[in-house]
Every structure is written in C-alpha cells, then in structure tokens.
Design brief:
The protein is of the alpha/beta class. It has helices at 60-67, 88-91, 109-119, 124-137, 153-164, 183-198, 210-216, 234-240, 246-253, 264-271, and strands spanning 14-26, 32-45, 49-53, 75-80, 94-97, 171-175, 202-206, 219-224, 227-233. The strands form two sheets. It has a six-stranded mixed sheet with strand order 5-6-7-3-8-9, with helices on both faces.
Length: 272
C-alpha cells in the first residue's frame, strides 16, 4: 500500500516509476546553482534490462542516486516497488554498484562479501553458500584469499559486482558496470546481466558502452543536459531515427556532427 501523500501510476509490473523528476543543486547561499535533472519521466518493468545513456554531466548518476534514496528530488515523484526510495524495506530489495567501488583494501574477496552479507543480517549458512556462488559467478574463486589491494581495477570491479548481488536483490542498479574491465570482463558482466534477466530480476544501469547496451538492453532512455530526449526499445529507436545502430541514434539526439563526413548539401556543392 502506498504511503499517505505519495501517489504513483505504477502498474503491477512496474518496479521503478519516475514522474517529472527535477533535481536542482543549490549554492552556499541556497540559490539554484544547477539543474542536474529536468522533468524526467520513465518506468522500468519487472524482469527487464533498462539502460540509461547520456554524455558526462547529463544527469545519469544523479537520477540513480535519487532512485536509491541518496538524494531527494526537488520536484516530481519517484517510486521503487511502489514506495518512496527512502523506505528501508525497499532498500533491502536493491543491489547497487556505484561508478567507483568503495572496498576495504585489507580484506580479501571472501571477507569483503561476508562483511556486506552480515550488514543484511544474512545467516551464516546462507552467507557461505551465497559467497561461493558469487565468487564463481564473477570468476574470482581462485583469488578469493588475496587482499583487495592486490587486485587489478578489473578484479575490483568484479568483486564490487558480487557485493551488489550479495543480498540476492530483485532490482540491481549498476553505474558504469564495465568501467575498467577488459573484453573478457565485459563479456562476463553481459553474461551475468542475461542470467539475472532469465531469473526474472530487473536490471537498471548506465553506461558509455553503447555496443553493450544495444546487446543486453530491452529498453533504453537517453539523457542530454538533464532532459530525457528519447526512450524506447533499441530496435524501435534505430528505426524511428533512421540510423544503423544505437550509437548513431545517440549521436544524432545529442546533436553531434562529424565534420569529416560531408552531408548531402556539401556533396551537391562539390559536384556543382
């Protein structure tokens, strides 16, 4: 049941509902300094993979932090599982991988996962089973007793992903999940996302890797300068904008023009 004063049009299949989200940051004198997100509306359905795209500074991370309850919206309505993101019970159902993982360097991988599992009050037997499964899933079983400080950036990213899954979340939120990963690591992340979707989980992530987004996402939303410029299924967006792939759609929407590639009018002028 929704809390008094909080309304949402979410259907039974909607895990995330974002309605007219505005987030404005203020300066020291409480004057509006920057509007990071400006009237963004979208829904994420149960069991789908939803990608959030946009250049640096477009509002992706701010939107994610609002969904996690780390930031309060200036205006608009946001619901996760039909409740405000600040709800404690809601947070227990979410896994989160930030753009930069914050790990204790003196712990090894197993100790890291055990620590976060205890924060969720997971019992010992379940913890051990879950840790074994996750270490195998992210390919770190052979390095589980090495301190995190000895890990490469890619290995740290993978243990961060395992940490985000330790509570067996219904909704997984990933901020640039393949950052710092080599091709094999990126492939592993794609396989994990596909596996979670097959299990009926919901995955929401932001990424600069448009090829990967095109491969794994059911739907995408594109932000530019804080505004939602396009949203829909990948193949529908490609067809609607008459482009060959998602990258070309993205470049068109943000207004990028490669001056090294002549347009039709310049070709005609040269021919004349």
């Amino acid at each position: 049941m929704a809390r008094r004063g909080f309304t949402t049009r979410a259907s039974g299949q909607s895990v995330v509902v974002c309605q007219g989200l505005i987030k404005t940051f203020k300066d020291f004198w409480m004057r509006d300094r920057a509007r990071a997100v400006d009237g963004v509306t979208f829904e994420i359905n149960r069991g789908e993979v939803f990608g959030l795209l946009g250049p640096n500074g477009s509002g992706k991370s701010t939107t994610i932090k609002v969904l996690l309850g780390l930031l309060r919206p200036t205006k608009g309505r946001v619901a996760v599982f039909g409740l405000p993101p600040s709800d404690v019970e809601t947070k227990k159902r979410i896994g989160y991988l930030p753009e930069e993982s914050f790990l204790y360097p003196f712990l090894n991988a197993r100790e890291t996962l055990d620590y976060y599992a205890k924060l969720f009050e997971i019992d010992h037997r379940t913890r051990e089973r879950r840790i074994d499964e996750l270490l195998d899933m992210v390919g770190l079983k052979s390095a589980q007793f090495r301190q995190v400080r000895e890990y490469s950036k890619g290995m740290q990213r993978r243990i961060g992903l395992a940490q985000a899954l330790i509570n067996d979340p219904e909704l997984l939120i990933l901020d640039e999940p393949t950052s710092g990963l080599d091709p094999l690591g990126r492939m592993k992340v794609r396989e994990i996302i596909q596996r979670l979707r097959n299990e009926g989980r919901t995955v929401f992530f932001s990424s600069h890797e448009l090829g990967e987004v095109e491969t794994v996402c059911d739907r995408v939303a594109m932000l530019h300068q804080g505004e939602l410029k396009a949203e829909g299924r990948v193949q529908d967006l490609v067809r609607e904008h008459q482009q060959i792939n998602l990258e070309q759609v993205f470049l068109k929407i943000i207004g990028y023009h490669d001056s090294s590639v002549p347009n039709d009018s310049s070709i005609h002028r040269q021919a004349a």
